[in-house]
Design goal:
about 180 residues, mainly alpha, 7 helices
Length: about 180
């Protein structure tokens, strides 16, 4: 089944909306506490952004798949259960594959459950749309969050530490020194 050009344009708009027009941190000023706490290094900012992106996409997909069977009275508790389930999966994956990063940002990963932006997208978008638009919306919002955290952490590490290290695989590579 091929999608029409207007559907492709609509998916592109949904995707770009989360990155530019409704960027969680830069435009909506949500999730500022973890964004300040986690962005002391580029590596931490990138991994936190990836974690939020993964949770946002998976929550949107799950809620979209369940939207016709969730009763209105219990939708918010169900949404919170879905979010907390995906956050738990994210915590387990990070603890298994990037334990050094998880040791630094693990507390903030758990706080993803309380991110208003994820619950808002589940309520306002995923619960009312099919899977593909919900996935595009979640991916756009997640990439927007990742972009914001990466930008903030880039400047905070460069100015605060005088150097810059970037993740290369599971290790970090020193790439730039600003101040000796």
């Amino acid at each position: 089944m091929r999608m029409s050009t207007s559907s492709n344009t609509n998916l592109k708009e949904l995707f770009l909306n989360g990155i530019v027009k409704e960027n969680t941190i830069f435009k909506l000023a949500l999730s500022l506490c973890p964004s300040i706490a986690v962005t002391n290094s580029l590596k931490n900012g990138i991994y936190m952004g990836l974690a939020v992106m993964f949770v946002q996409v998976m929550v949107n997909i799950t809620i979209s798949l369940m939207r016709k069977i969730i009763q209105a009275k219990v939708r918010l508790p169900i949404f919170m259960l879905v979010i907390s389930g995906w956050v738990t999966v994210t915590q387990l994956l990070m603890a298994a594959f990037v334990p050094d990063v998880y040791a630094k940002v693990g507390l903030y990963i758990a706080l993803i459950v309380a991110f208003a932006s994820i619950l808002a997208r589940a309520e306002m978008f995923a619960s009312k749309n099919s899977i593909l638009p919900s996935m595009a919306d979640g991916l756009g919002m997640g990439i927007g969050f990742l972009f914001a955290l990466t930008t903030i952490s880039f400047f905070r590490e460069l100015v605060g530490k005088g150097s810059l290290t970037v993740p290369t695989g599971l290790a970090t590579q020193h790439v730039f020194t600003f101040i000796n």
